[in-house]
């Protein structure tokens, strides 16, 4: 190599390394790219040159690291693979690749990478990663998450590391709308259905509730979120391909039904698959239809103090349709969304959660469903559509709106239920719709003195509402209050724990569940 060329390469390499050390990622990527191009050209025109080949390997490895800092994992992995073609045992590249694969929740591939890294006698420096991969892979397969320690410590410390997990579900055509997620086996209440990390999230700190977040702040948050998703999608063809399969709110019934396996982090699109682009308009439609917020009543944020409000996009949960009688709930743990059954599900049954509060009346639910652009035709909505057209029920609803005392509303409603011979689940639908009145009554001593003997007990009402909407934290709270009042008499502790499983899922052991109940439900 001419001395002049060597000088140029040397200078480029030093510049790139300096920028890399200063953590100026974009500039270092640019400098390394220049170096890599020159180096590659040189190597293709000269005899094998070990020194140059080694420099190229290091440059590719450093560019991979810089790219991964900018979350450009796809290109970073390509750099790692290129570097490993030059030196299959290059430790720094193996570690870099392994860490990227871990970030992408590709535990088995990461494990393979770290194992290769141990072959050159680096077992000690890699052992921590090996253990982490093994335990995450096991968690991902079994779904046996246990957040007991974190919960028992009052959510102090880092949010525990979760892993991607897809339970016994598949995507199928749904009678509700378009595609939906369906159980392939019986799933017990409380069992996990999905655990998955947001492809992007944006959070704001709020002092009170979400209502304290100004419209401007919400808009800014939404804009940042869209920018983040757009940037990420631009960098990652796999995510682009998966996002492209989500509904954008039109022609849902004609959209393809993807195989659930595509959403496993280890799955890579088949070779030769046409590269898809996502245009801004379609992406906005997709985000509008599928993004979830952390504040929904149907969701619980497992963290002490709800001082954070976030919006995010989770891919596979985007196939879950809404129902006013949901059978699943979602919890937010860090950037992970944990979906569990809130009722027992039969194989073949569609998994649904509530996009908005199911413990309110038909008209309120209709109002809220407009924001989601849906016109819900579930059994409950159809039944209530008929019942709410009856004069007697409308009068009770109007009474409640005008501030009639809760006990009076409950008494009148129960009388009408008897008169109209409403039974079973249908009774539960209406009680869920008038939940506010029931809850007010059971909680007020005066109301209970006046109406207590003439209305069903809180336990009976909680049972009948749970039967239709599944476990809910407000029902659980009322049940706990009844348990306290009756000092274990009527409401049994086991019943409270059963409902707690439906509300929070089986992610904590019994002792930690007590703490969780105190922190999230208790006063
Ligand atoms: C998050 S996606 C759910 C999956 C969607 N069905 C699909 O095929 O991709 C939300 C969209 O599903 C439809 N949807 C969900 N629940 C519904 C319901 N109860 N009634 C009518 N449409 C519903 C609406 O079009 C809504 O915009």
From TrEMBL:
It comes from the Eukaryota. SMART domains: SET, TPR. Residues 167-356 form the SET domain. Pfam families: SET (PF00856). Coiled coil: none annotated. InterPro entries: Gramillin-biosynth_MTr (IPR053209), SET_dom (IPR001214), SET_dom_sf (IPR046341), TPR-like_helical_dom_sf (IPR011990), TPR_rpt (IPR019734). PANTHER family: TPR DOMAIN PROTEIN (AFU_ORTHOLOGUE AFUA_5G12710). This is SET domain-containing protein. It comes from Sphenostylis stenocarpa.
């Amino acid at each position: 190599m001419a001395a002049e060329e060597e000088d140029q390469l040397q200078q480029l390499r030093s510049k790139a390394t300096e920028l890399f050390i200063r953590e100026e990622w974009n500039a270092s990527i640019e400098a390394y790219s220049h170096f890599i191009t020159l180096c590659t050209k040189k190597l293709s025109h000269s005899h094998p040159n070990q020194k140059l080949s080694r420099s190229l390997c290091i440059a590719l490895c450093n560019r991979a690291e810089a790219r991964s800092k900018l979350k450009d994992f796809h290109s970073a992995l390509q750099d790692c693979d290129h570097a490993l073609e030059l030196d299959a045992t290059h430790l720094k590249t193996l570690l870099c690749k392994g860490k990227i694969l871990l970030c992408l929740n590709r535990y088995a591939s990461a494990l393979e990478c770290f194992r290769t890294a141990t072959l050159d006698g680096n077992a000690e420096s890699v052992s921590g990663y090996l253990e982490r991969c093994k335990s995450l892979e096991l968690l991902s397969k079994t779904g046996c998450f246990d957040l007991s320690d974190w919960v028992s410590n009052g959510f102090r410390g880092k949010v525990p590391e979760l892993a991607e997990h897809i339970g016994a579900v598949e995507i199928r055509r749904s009678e509700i709308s378009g595609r939906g997620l369906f159980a392939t086996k019986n799933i017990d209440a409380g069992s996990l259905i999905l655990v998955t990390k947001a492809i992007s999230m944006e959070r704001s700190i709020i002092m009170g509730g979400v209502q304290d977040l100004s419209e401007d702040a919400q808009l800014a948050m939404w804009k940042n979120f869209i920018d983040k998703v757009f940037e990420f999608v631009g960098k990652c063809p796999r995510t682009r391909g998966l996002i492209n399969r989500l509904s954008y709110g039109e022609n849902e019934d004609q959209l393809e039904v993807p195989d659930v396996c595509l959403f496993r982090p280890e799955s890579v699109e088949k070779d030769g698959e046409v590269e898809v682009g996502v245009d801004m308009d379609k992406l906005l439609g997709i985000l509008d239809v599928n993004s979830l917020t952390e504040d929904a009543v149907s969701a619980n944020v497992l963290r002490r103090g709800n001082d954070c409000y976030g919006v995010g996009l989770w891919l596979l949960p985007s196939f879950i349709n809404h129902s006013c009688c949901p059978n699943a709930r979602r919890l937010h743990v860090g950037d992970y969304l944990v979906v569990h059954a809130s009722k027992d599900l039969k194989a073949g049954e569609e998994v649904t959660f509530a996009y908005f509060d199911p413990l309110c009346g038909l008209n309120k639910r209709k109002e809220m469903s407009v924001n989601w652009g849906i016109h819900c035709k579930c059994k409950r909505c159809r039944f209530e559509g008929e019942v709410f057209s009856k004069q007697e029920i409308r009068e009770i609803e109007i009474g409640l709106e005008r501030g009639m005392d809760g006990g009076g509303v409950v008494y009148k409603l129960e009388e009408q239920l008897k008169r109209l011979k409403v039974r079973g689940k249908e009774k539960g639908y209406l009680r869920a719709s008038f939940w506010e009145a029931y809850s007010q009554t059971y909680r007020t001593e005066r109301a209970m003195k006046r109406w207590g003997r003439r209305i069903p007990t809180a336990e009976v009402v909680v049972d009948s509402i749970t039967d239709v909407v599944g476990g809910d934290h407000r029902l659980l709270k009322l049940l706990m209050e009844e348990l306290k009042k009756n000092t274990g008499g009527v409401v049994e502790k086991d019943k409270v724990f059963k409902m707690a499983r439906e509300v929070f899922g089986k992610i904590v052991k019994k002792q930690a569940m007590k703490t969780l109940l105190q922190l999230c439900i208790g006063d």
